[in-house]
Amino acid sequence: MAICGKPFWQRPAKHESDQKRETNPGESKAMIKDLIAKNRSCRRFFQEVPIERQTLEELVDLARLSPSGANLQPLKYILSCDHQRNSLIFPHLAWAGYLKDWPGPSEGERPSAYIIILADKEIAVSVDCDHGIAAQSILLGATEKGLGGCILGAVNREGLRKVLDIPSRYETLLVLALGKPREKVVIETVGPDGEIEYWRDTAGTHHVPKRALNEIILD
After folding, report:
1. pLDDT digit string (tens) for 9-58?
2. How far apart are CA 6 and CA 27, in angstroms?
3. pTM of the model
4. 123 plus 171 within the same structural domain
5. Are both 193 and 163 inside the same structural domain?
6. How many domains does the chain have?
7. Structural domain of 130
8. Are 175 and 91 members of one domain?
């Protein structure tokens, strides 16, 4: 029998790592679930640990490869990984709405980098879910690299436009804050009271309630 124009016995042997992947079909499933579970919103970082621009470009490349409605691909990105530019971005962000007494990360705990997701209005007048898909792809990639991040939608968009001189054709959709995680985040199960607000304990551990699987599957 010939496969791809060549008898199967003449094809080169599979690499050992390929054979291992084929004999462990459940491995990739465990990896993606673990990665998603580990990908928690992180709001405190080791600010002194830098993130290179190349790393940010690699993360945006994951977003580039992700699905896009009608394949229009209207998203554009602004990358920031130097202290001066980061300091322009930070004041225009709001952090952790449920933590009423916490104004956000203090100096030394702020993000080392940002990825700003924008819509090019000359490509699409409105964007449905592309930016959510892109943000998840970027943060999963960041988690794989040992980084943490937070998707920020509470943004002073006009203030950000002014300090970064963003042209009017681009609309800021989300800001992703990135850095080496400084806090521990754990998943809890929503209790009988139905409380879904995240909270921090006295040790600074961040707790995130999630609804049970049987609660969200209707049929």
Report:
1. 444 444 444 444 454 656 666 699 999 999 999 999 999 999 999 999 99
2. 31
3. 0.85
4. yes
5. no
6. 2
7. 53-182
8. yes
